[in-house]
Amino acid sequence: MTTRLLWAAALVLSCWSRPAPAAFTASCSVSATALAFGTYTPSQGTATDALATVSIVCNPNLDLGITFTVRLSTGGSGSYAGRAMTSAGGTLQYQVYQDPARTQVWGDGSAGTATNGGSFAALPFFTLNQSYTAYGRITSRQNVGAGVFTDTLIVTVTY
């Protein structure tokens, strides 16, 4: 399943499952709210922050245990060290974190990044929900022109 949403740009969501007989496996979906930074002022002396929510919904069917991992891609920059939004006005550096202090970059577990995830242990046929907050930040005083800056991140949920 792939859904495209606006997240500081576009956010592409996909959900993968492990192979097993369909009658005995869980089915999960993922959705996200927009990570919209709003107006960025280059002369502003403080960072511009935004929040988004990534939600996982699973129906376990006959599968009583579901363990899942939530990963974010690098985006168009190709690097977790510096995600970047682009427009005709230039390139605007930003980052997505998994903690409110904005110290742990949310990635795929490589290059010092962390993943989110968890597990559900539940009765069959009950819907299970788990949400995660994505903490976005654009650092201050970046010299960019006016424009609509975008980037595309891919959220992958593996269970």
Q: How would you describe this protein?
A:
The two termini are 14 Å apart. The protein has 159 residues and is an all-beta fold. It has a single domain, classed as Fimbrial-type adhesion domain (Immunoglobulin-like, Sandwich), CATH 2.60.40.1090. It has a five-stranded mixed β-sheet, with no helix packed on it. The protein has a five-stranded antiparallel β-sheet with strand order 3-4-9-7-6, with no helix packed on it. The protein has strands at residues 2-6, 10-16, 27-32, 48-59, 65-72, 83-87, 90-97, 116-121, 128-138, 152-158. A hairpin with a 2-residue loop joins β6 and β7. It is elongated, with a radius of gyration of 17 Å.
